[in-house]
Amino acid sequence: MVPPLSPAALLRWCWGVSLVLVTTSTVLRLVDPGLGTDDLTVDDPEAGTVVGDDRPAPPFDGFYRLRDLLSVDAEGNLATWFSVALLLGSALVAWTLAAGARRGGDGPWRAWAVVALGLGYLSLDELAQLHEVAATLLGVPDLGGALTFGWVVVAAPAVLVAAVVGLRFAASLPPRTRALVVTAGAVYVGGALGMEVAGGAVYAATGSLQTVGYVLVSSLEELLELAGASLLLHALVAHLAAVGDRSSGGALLAAPAAPAPPARGPAAAAPREAA
Length: 275
What we know:
Blueprint lengths: L6 H24 L10 E4 L4 E3 L11 H8 L7 H27 L4 H20 L1 H8 L13 H20 L4 H32 L5 H32 L32
Antiparallel strand pairs: 1-2
């Protein structure tokens, strides 16, 4: 039997895994012998993929494989999988809330369904980097400076619209859920968009991804994204537990123990056996 998992415990686990991933990734990138080397061939500046055989000798066999597996600034690895899992998990919980609200005839079930679809898209985007594909197809140029990474130009209007719509929906939520959801969204967008702008400025100033400054900025970006996604998952799971919808995945949630019925005097005691 799977042991119950409270929303608070879920948040602690998600934040713990996020911190371990980002810390390990940062350390591996900082001890990379190629750090500070500007003549490396970079295949994709945003993904930080380095190709070619001119990389310095690694500190141990398999170093570059391990770094690429755990790097939060690369794609298609363990860090990406964890980020996708957080967003997809939130999408499934939101869909469960939509289904429960529709069955119960109360609550804005259509709004929850839109939230679920939006989170599902974010998980797909995290996996397939759809925002970068869109920027390329639309021919968005790299404007230099803070807007070196052109997808920011495409994402900013969409984020603004989503924020306005999302805040209107959040106003209908209970105060605690509303505070958690708004905070999670602010932290996630601050990392995904805000720190991406900062990373673009650092890259434009140095012309290299192999700098301490870019490593630290991009690591902070991913830490904020993972922290925000973890907090959002916690908020939705806690809300699901509060409304009492156990139609999907509810066995994983720790329901509060029911209080024992009070004793009612001698009548509640077990009868004695006759002598």
